[in-house]
Design a protein that fits this description.
Strand order of the largest sheet: 3-4-8-7-9-10-11-12
CATH architecture: 3-Layer(aba) Sandwich
Order of helices and strands: EHEHEEEEEHEHEHEHHHEHEH
Radius of gyration: 19 Å
CATH topology: Rossmann fold
Number of strands: 12
Oligomer: single chain
CATH class: Alpha Beta
Helix content: 25-40%
Number of domains: 1
Shape: globular
Distance between the termini: 42 Å
Length: 344
């Protein structure tokens, strides 16, 4: 299976040309899984893996809210999957393209952690995507002993919900997911979260309100929702007037009934800094390194910053040769050290 990855917030750029701020804001908050698949332009990164791999792990559901929704998720327990990762690069229509391929072995062999996981890692995808985008991370970390939870965020994939809230409500959704896992005897302590892009910003926000969450890795989080959206416009839809996007962004806080600052990751962290490993792609045009550094500077002093040379926004989550060891070590250190974290 070849899966094309859309950038976070991508569909925001493909809106009516009416220019009405309220209309654009409603489209921004509309559940991404309610848009037709042809609506998003072709992104520069593809994932290639056998669809039978995901099908091997049962889909589960948990009720969340308010507003009410049901999250779809899968659990991948520790095992030896013999994961093999490769990548292919080429140029198409003067744009760089990358395909990341993942091969594994099923049924997997049990390992030393299968019956007693190191802990639980919740994996959070980007805007407009679904849990498949973080599936390679689940396999990688399961081999290292972690029980991994792949979740479709509200309004994404197979989860329900008519509207998204850019983390404001989604953080509570994830805490209710932990409650459901606890009820089912599926939550192994300690708990960590790894997110990319939209999911990265959400993971940081979630850490500020969820004491059970001990460790966070945020890959290419946005500092400002407005800046990220405008960068996407310049990168993917230059034909769409920036004034329309700005009008929608101006109306979005009122639509979601939150203060404007509540939609910016840096403002949330300034209110309550948390410790996290922050990852930046040095060729990221959507969340430029300078923006990601702003997020890092707003976190607790115990945080780490990893800058990945040559990585674009879409590709940086899959630089396993750089990220894999760093993420593995960060999770082990943070969850085993028991060190106090600012804001907890």
């Amino acid at each position: 299976m070849h899966v094309r990855l859309s950038s976070c917030l991508l569909v925001l750029l493909l809106l009516s040309t009416s220019g009405c701020g309220r209309f654009v804001a409603r489209r921004m908050a509309q559940a991404p899984n309610s848009y037709p698949t042809w609506f998003a332009p072709a992104p520069p990164v593809e994932l290639a893996f056998d669809p039978a791999l995901l099908a091997s792990f049962p889909v589960r559901k948990v009720a969340v809210g308010p507003p009410p929704a049901k999250l779809s998720y899968r659990i991948i327990d520790p095992a030896n999957f013999h994961l093999v990762i490769s990548s292919t690069n080429w140029v198409e229509r003067n744009r760089s393209r990358t395909r990341f391929s993942f091969e594994t072995q099923l049924p997997a062999e049990t390992n030393a952690w299968t019956q007693s996981p190191r802990g639980t890692v919740v994996l959070l995808h980007g805007y407009g995507l679904a849990h498949f985008a973080m599936f390679p991370w689940a396999l990688y970390l399961a081999q290292d002993g972690w029980r991994c939870v792949l979740v479709d965020l509200r309004g994404h994939g197979e989860s329900t919900g008519d509207r998204i809230f850019f983390g404001v409500q989604e953080a509570n959704d994830l805490s209710l997911l932990l409650d459901g896992l606890t009820h089912d005897g599926q939550l192994s302590q300690p708990v960590a979260a790894i997110g990319e892009s939209y999911g990265a910003a959400l993971s940081l926000r979630w850490k500020t309100v969820e004491p059970r969450l001990k460790s966070v890795v945020a890959i290419a989080p946005y500092a400002s929702l407005s800046n990220a959206t405008l960068n996407l416009g310049r990168e993917y839809a230059r034909w769409f007037p920036p004034a329309f996007l700005k009008a929608g962004l101006k109306q979005l806080p009122a639509l979601l009934q939150v203060p404007p600052a509540e939609l910016d990751t840096t403002q949330v962290l300034k209110r309550k800094p948390v410790s996290a490993l922050i990852v930046a792609g040095m060729q990221d045009k959507i969340m430029p390194p300078s923006e990601v550094r702003r997020v890092f500077e707003a976190t607790a002093p115990t945080s780490g910053l990893l800058e990945v040379s040559g990585a674009s926004h879409e590709a940086v989550p899959y630089y396993f040769n750089v990220l894999g060891p760093a993420v593995r070590d960060w999770l082990r250190l943070q969850t085993n050290s028991g060190e106090a974290i600012s804001g907890d």
